[in-house]
Amino acid sequence: MLSDRALAAFRSALGADRVFDDAATRAVYACDETPRRVEPDAVLFPTSHDEVVALARIAFEHRIALTPRGAGSGNVGGALPAPGSVVVSFECMRRVLEFDPANRLIVVEAGVVTGEIDRIARSAGLFYPPDPGSSTYCRIGGNLAMNAAGPRAVKYGVTRDYVLGLRAVTGSGQEIRTGCRTTKGVTGYDLSRLLVGSGGTLALITEATLKLLPAPEAVATLRVCFNSNRAALDAVSRVMQQAVVPCALEFMDHRAIDAIRPTGAADDLPPGTRALLMVEADGAAEDVPRQIAALEQALAGDGLLGMKSGFERDEITLLWTARKSLSHAVKQIAPLKINEDVVVPVSQLADLVDFIDHTAHAHRLAVVSFGHAGNGNLHVNLMVHPDDADEMERAHLAHDAILLRVLALGGTLSGEHGIGTEKRRFVDREIDPPTLDLMRAIKLQFDPHGLLNPGKLFPD
Amino acid sequence: MLSDRALAAFRSALGADRVFDDAATRAVYACDETPRRVEPDAVLFPTSHDEVVALARIAFEHRIALTPRGAGSGNVGGALPAPGSVVVSFECMRRVLEFDPANRLIVVEAGVVTGEIDRIARSAGLFYPPDPGSSTYCRIGGNLAMNAAGPRAVKYGVTRDYVLGLRAVTGSGQEIRTGCRTTKGVTGYDLSRLLVGSGGTLALITEATLKLLPAPEAVATLRVCFNSNRAALDAVSRVMQQAVVPCALEFMDHRAIDAIRPTGAADDLPPGTRALLMVEADGAAEDVPRQIAALEQALAGDGLLGMKSGFERDEITLLWTARKSLSHAVKQIAPLKINEDVVVPVSQLADLVDFIDHTAHAHRLAVVSFGHAGNGNLHVNLMVHPDDADEMERAHLAHDAILLRVLALGGTLSGEHGIGTEKRRFVDREIDPPTLDLMRAIKLQFDPHGLLNPGKLFPD
């Protein structure tokens, strides 16, 4: 339990109205999007970098574990409080410190909502490419911790690719500045990218200098229906072997399509549709039709049932209906979702989906797969009833089998959700012992007492 | 001096024909492109990852410092042997281990020539974007160590952006594998990007998995002449504030143009040309003319003297004559080049060039500036006579003043050459003490006895 002395120190540093240890607040901050719950001892709401320095120094002095938290919208328990820890919520650090369109950069505090960054950028003809599904409410600090991405990653890359520099506070309360303000720079080690994706285990990121790009003038969408997963994924391979890089290349398998049928969102799909691709192109208005024509040509092939294109906003929204209704529809299948975020080389995706199908069948499980096929990134959702012990046992067997297959196919455990609590037991199957030892050794340099987000990322 | 026992151990591990300690070999490997010379005790030529592991273990056991070396084409003494060290040349590790066009990746040993990677990629309609000026002879291992770039960085980014994964050997002879084979991945810390740009001080990179992109179908070039540096750099700012991102945006100042006049390469420039931009666009053949038109519009403005475009290979080659003749011409000005590689935010570039002009004048120095203006990356060359003590003194004063100005403008010491021996005394002006301490602490985890490329990157 947090000592009175520590609590008083936090209150003195942040102000009494920024430190909560009441039951209601602790309950609210007990979980992220994973089903687990652990109540923290208290929740802190710093409002500036300096306050984060102050609280980190108090935590260091009193040996208090800290659980950093953005919006709590993560899928892997990254913001799940460690027992006895104090949550550091970045919600109140949402200032845009600088917007410099001439140099295509923005400097934001860690609590700024990701979509807000994009909105500001667009006001000057620029945009912020990473577009996680939660972008209307997730915070950039969480995106940086997990190296978040989204559909546009196939063309534009992930959060890591847009970080020029960071301001952060280590586990011993040291302030550090990483990177620079320019698009090139090789002075010292690249600590920015070491912090990105480290899940809050190395330092508390307080401010980020982000790179922006010119906003594409136009976008157009193709909804492409196939009679089988393999037909759709063969088309993905063809798309990734020609020159036009789409700005989205999303896949839904037949179980995902079945899931949305009750909502009516599949009503206008051609009969026999067993897999669906959403393909987008963006760029100059004059050039997008050329890109779409090239993509249509690459997509055409065995098993194609129909292709619809949309160039106007309303048409595009309509085409996305099936995909957008998926998240809600999946939740109707079973109360609990065991959510994977695996990646394999694009050419192996069809084999992986076959294997998942086979595994789901063998273990009598409902498994819905969809994801960012252009990156080989598949969200595999095992839909289960937590009270059904037998089903849960089968789900865990299937889950392990799928992860092993991913690694055997040359893949990785996580594309954009991170490791958190949920996947850490598999990490040493992907990373060899000396490399993992080095990561642990690096962790100790930033956080000698292991106070930053304990119980995450590393296997026990 | 290297002990007989150590020498015998190296010979036993690599074979006698891969270990040289004769005077001639040691003399050849005593320098890179910087004027300094230090003869190593021996030169090793491993032919595989396993041999690098073996030699690193021998070096660890005998506490022998290692100086890794690609082609020795670096500009900052990165491959300059530390006194008493043994050079590890990667020249004999030039196997392409895998080329997988379907997944847009290539796996190469560290000694493969960078241009060779691009050549192989293009055989399958792909390309490797980073294009350092030395790409016909530099080795990918050196590019990875320094995070090399080139003109295309303005559109396509730097070496760091194309690394999916690495195989490497630490200073204690541990083998590590970083990253993955896919374009997304967030399992564990991003050690790949920690190694990229670390100048060989953390680990010996033996193999790299690199990302490739679809090759642009067409390219077109603009050579744009202005009556002043400021007019040219204002045009750069305008280009970087519209939507078409050029694949090259190179600048030459008036002293650079003066330097090429004796060669005849400036003969067809409009009279009064005092600054020159080379601007390129690439993409689909149908789309490049649209890009060029947009770029021409952005480039037009005060001080423009003339703009020539080229769409065919011969025209393009001709337009690049002035720029390509620069490197050789500059060497005629004075025997020694003090070569900077600074970066400032693009909007500050005109101020920096003004300051350099003023400083050159005040110190009576010949300073030639050119570079990758789209990234704000300027190569500043102070041309001096090393025997002229007074001039050398003035050059060092000017050099210091320029670097301080770069930092004051929000810039960084190096964009693509790295730090090596030549810039390390300035590093602590850019990186604050706690951040630098962390870098040193990280270094110790990889290399506990400080055997990997000692005397580089960190200030004393």
TrEMBL record, chains A, B:
Keywords: FAD, Flavoprotein, Methyltransferase, Oxidoreductase, Transferase. The keyword Disulfide bond does not apply. One of its GO terms (biological process) is methylation. Residues 36-215 form the FAD-binding PCMH-type domain. It comes from the Bacteria. GO terms for molecular function: FAD binding; methyltransferase activity; oxidoreductase activity. Gene3D superfamilies: 3.30.465.10, 3.30.70.2740, Vanillyl-alcohol Oxidase, Chain A, domain 4. InterPro entries: FAD-bd_oxidored_4_C, FAD-bd_PCMH, FAD-bd_PCMH-like_sf, FAD-bd_PCMH_sub2, FAD-linked_Oxase-like_C, FAD-linked_OxidoTrans_Type4, Oxid_FAD_bind_N, Vanillyl_alc_oxidase_C-sub2. Its cofactor is FAD. Belongs to the FAD-binding oxidoreductase/transferase type 4 family. This is Dimethylmenaquinone methyltransferase.
